[in-house]
Each structure stands twice: as C-alpha cells, then as structure tokens.
Amino acid sequence: MSNIATMSLNPLFLRHDLMIELGRLEMAIDSARSQSAANDTVGQLETRCAKINEALSKLPA
After folding, report:
1. What domain of life does the UniProt record list for this protein's source (predicted)?
2. What is the residue range of 35's domain?
3. How many domains does the chain have?
C-alpha cells in the first residue's frame, strides 16, 4: 500500500499524468474549434491548459 502512495507523490508520475491530461485538453480544444463550440467552452479548456502548463513548469526536470 505504501508503494501506491509513493507513486502518486513521485514527480515523474505526476509529470506523466499532467502530460496526458494536457494532450486530452488539446484534442478537446481542437474538436471544440472544429465544431464551432461556444467561445467560453474553448476559453475554459485553454485556461485549464495554462494551469497544467504552469504546474508542469514548477515540477523538477
């Protein structure tokens, strides 16, 4: 059980998870733009991307 807790706190796993989420958000933004979704929907997705990029920049390389 302690291995699971360690994995969730490991910056490498966190970076991986954030990169996956960033990819999903970028695909959602592309899809929303191609379907002419509301600007606030795209804006919310872009805001989420910015927050994830900020979090990634704070993680150790």
Report:
1. Bacteria
2. 2-58
3. 1
